[in-house]
Amino acid sequence: MKNTSETRDKLKKIIYKFFKKEIYQNIRDSRKRKTIHAIELSELKKSKFLKLINHAKIYSPYYRTLLMNNNVNSIDDLINLPILTKTIIKKNIDYIKSTSEEDLKYIKKNSTSGSTGKASNFYSDKRDKREARVIRGDEFVPNFNFFDKQLIFWGAERDVISKKSLSYYFNKLIVKKQIVSTYHLTEQDINRNVDLINKFKPVTIVGYPSALHFMALQIQKNDNVKLSSYPEGIISAGETLQLHQKDIIEDVFKTRVYNRYGCREVGHIANECIEHNGYHYNADDLIIEVVDDKGDLCKDGIVGNLLITDLNNYAFPMIRYNIGDLGSISNLKNCSCGCTLPKLKTIEGRTFEIIHGTNGNKVSGTFWTLTFRNTVNGVEAFQIKQASNHNLHINVKTNESFSFKEEEKIKQIIREKLGEGIEIEIHKVGEFEYTKTGKFKWITSELSN
Ligand SMILES: [Zn+2]
To answer: Separation of 306 CA from ligand 1 center, angstroms?
Structure first.
């Protein structure tokens, strides 16, 4: 059995090398850097950073002006540059773009998915090696190799490959990757998806936590739907993973969830490893800074705004880009998984998922999960919406354990954390609506910006 699969692997590698030689080389290089020595990493970052800065100075009219007025000779000098925001990109998109003819051959128009309701445009560089980083991240799942079977539940239509295309057959036959749309996920779709898992027997399953959680709940409550094949790991991607989702997914799929963190603008950023204690980030391709709301650097472990400098995007330089997520850097130096890439300690989620109090306090998803799951009885699911500092709208799906007493308890816990002045409306609802892509907005604050 082993010999057959080894021969198949060898064959797949040869075919892959032939068709996608460059990507294959990038994957191998990325893998090697998983155990890079700290000094070598520092040298690599420094040389890539200076190359990017010098390139931007010559070819990006926006950065030419900025870099003329601000001295940037090392990574430590980054603090001298202003933060790149979505608003600045919108206003200066044509000035940030490189004027180099060589760069323009690789430029690709792109846009964010607009989870906040506002999609924004930018450009990617086809040479940015993001595919290799995703693969390196997925390989944190034990016993998973890029050539193993992977099933992807995805909602972004542009990423779901057409069944008529060459890429579809290439993925299916060579890479053993199948992508299934989570558009309009219904109970019928769940049955079909479970059948697919049982027949295809993927080593890893990738998906939005909302969609995977919805599937797990359906499998849990429906005795006729049974999983007979369990993956080595589940990779959660595309939105913030909430604790209560993670628990149910792990329980139903009988494996651990590995959180993958990334975004459209820079691609894959960080990944959980077998330790499940922080996220190794791609320090060989990205520089991450954490700053407070005034723009001052935060110490390790302190949560702030994540700023990313993409060291591989020459066509549209993104330097100190405020990605719109909160997180902190870990000071842990040696991870027992063997990977030497540094770690983010926490990723608190998107800034629009942060609820603001009248007392200045801010809370992220974990606060709500702990409140509704550990402290209050009878809440099966919840949804929080904040339109103003003084008002909080909460939808809850409850069971028979829920009572007026529990409702009062929720209000008391929230007021203790977010201030007495906050008005809290709690509404009981039947079922929650998922977005058409299979995502679910647990928390939305309109105060994020
Ligand atoms: Zn690790």
So the answer is: 21
